[in-house]
């Protein structure tokens, strides 16, 4: 697979905007993808937060399997305030607000001792397509932030008022360099990197190869073939779906898109890409 690098110009501007806004927020909420929380963890964002309280939200838990629970516990054992949710469920609002109350408990107590009632401000940050805007809309109780299923929907900052606290929605930001290409691949699989700059042959075949060891049965159930080379499985996808072009040749473009779309939309079942050991790379 070709080396993945993606850091469009607007992300440099976004990082500067976020750095300048940190002085006016009380804490940071980092949104991660529950299928690959270590891969979607941006150490630069963590460093930028400094000593401010941080809440980590592992979103899209409905698409992840039991390994996400192990990853969550690993993060918590390292001292991270972290929860796992599905932003599509209304009950997740209660879980998030409970966690927000925990990370602001000390500040709220100090304000109360002075007879003050403080409205806390939080910056919401993360790599693209992890569901930042969906979570903001859940907390606000209405659609206030733009959402989408592709990287780069949010481009500017916007303040969203919620009951008792304010949220600063920020653009998705990537690390400027992908030192860990395994993590970069996983971000490509979940759609955090713009598909338009990727070689989709590499992404689809890489995804199949990475799924085979642990999710062989899922591939076999969905496509009628889980063994063999990734290309042989892609052949099976094209044949089973009738993806053909003129002359009866296999339409690999449609087959590749089908595999990636099946994974992203959960049609292959609940999958976690990161291993529990990957959580050890996250420094809290």
Model description:
This protein is α/β, with parallel strands linked by helices. It contains ten helices and six strands. The chain has a six-stranded mixed β-sheet, sandwiched between helices. A hairpin with a 2-residue loop joins strand 5 and strand 6 (165-169). Helix 9 (230-241) crosses helix 10 (252-264). The protein is elongated. It starts with 8 loop residues before the first helix and ends in a 20-residue tail after the last helix.
**Biggest sheet features:** 6 strands, mixed
Any idea what the radius of gyration is? Answer: 20 Å
What is the typical, i.e. mean, pLDDT? Answer: 89
- Strand and helix order: HEHEHEHHEHEEHHHH
Number of strands: 6
